[in-house]
Amino acid sequence: MGSWAQHREEISGFIGKTIANTSELGNAIVLGAGNCDDLDFAFLGSLFESITLSDIDGQAMDEAVMRIDFLNLCREIHMIPNLVFSKLDLIYFYDRLEKMFIQRASANEINLFLSLAAKEIRAKDVLSHLKRSFSMVISSAVYSQIFYIHVLSLFAKFTDRYSENEVRYLMRGFLYLRDEVIKNYNDLMISLTKENGKILVWTDILQTDVEMNREIIENLYSINTDQDRWTYLRELVTMKGRELRFWDYRI
Ligand SMILES: C[S@@+](CC[C@H](N)C(=O)[O-])C[C@H]1O[C@@H](n2cnc3c(N)ncnc32)[C@H](O)[C@@H]1O
Predict the structure, then answer these.
(1) What is the domain range of residue 228?
(2) Which domain of life is it from (predicted)?
(3) How many domains does one find in the chain?
């Protein structure tokens, strides 16, 4: 079985477990649908009356349309391509930030801009016409790609212009905006969800190689309770994972 097939099977398992009453067909939106490699559309088509796919990468979705026989597998399929969930495009964030780096703006000015950007995106709305429309909102590994990685790649070109202390200070600003972007994205998912609807999110939090994978699996098997397994995973992610934050979200 190819790695995508195995991944698809796991994802279908999550979706199946999340839906309490499979006899009632609802409608779903998949945020971060991209190439649509991780979704089993025959399975989704059997669960939902209509499925909406959205991603920043319109081309990946176009290619998926050519590859997958959606209309045979799903009753209704809708596409929202080229949508930026972070809303940063609406405030021309990356252009403005790059210009500031080029003009050698101070670390203070940049951090001020980052807090302003957080306020500006908060005031913007996307998909407001679809508020409370979906019985299931699915987010496919979007968290780790939505912002932080892009801002770090841009900053990497200009780090030599700042002292070590300034770099540390700027990193705090990026982390602050990252958390704001994620909060906005969580709010977007909540706003799309119908009353009693479900939100299903998965994300990559730890990059492993084959050797580390083996070690993690062995350690997990040697731990006896779910509570201790969870503690082990949290510690592992805190030590070696992508910088993370745990939120306590209540709808
Ligand atoms: C890890 S991929 C998900 C895999 C995808 N479902 C597939 O099967 O190909 C994350 C997806 O989120 C999309 N994405 C990342 N940042 C985004 C943003 N700010 N706005 C909208 N989509 C974004 C990427 O284009 C990518 O397709």
Answers:
(1) 207-251
(2) Bacteria
(3) 1
Asked, for residue 176, whether it belongs to a domain, the answer is: no
Q: Please give the distance, rounded to the nearest whole angstrom, from the Cα atom of residue 163 to the centre of ligand 1.
A: 34
Mean pLDDT, rounded, for 67-93: 95
The number of the ligand 1 atom at minimal distance from the alpha carbon of 57 is 25
pLDDT of residue 95: 98
**Nearest-angstrom CA–CA distance, 224 and 15:** 27
Closest ligand 1 atom number to CA of residue 141: 1
125 found inside a domain:
no
DSSP 124: -
Specify if 227 maps to a domain.
yes
d(CA 150, CA 98): 12
Q: What are the pLDDT digits (tens) for 21-54?
A: 656 679 999 999 999 999 999 999 999 999 999 9
In this structure, the residue with its CA closest to atom 9 of ligand 1 is 35
- Confirm whether 158 is domain-assigned: no
CB contact set of 167 (below 8 Å; sequence gap of 6+) = 159
Question: What atom of ligand 1 comes closest to residue 36's alpha carbon?
Answer: 8
* Rounded Cα–Cα distance for residues 48 and 95 (Å): 40
Asked whether the beta carbons of 136 and 18 are under 8 A apart, the reply is yes
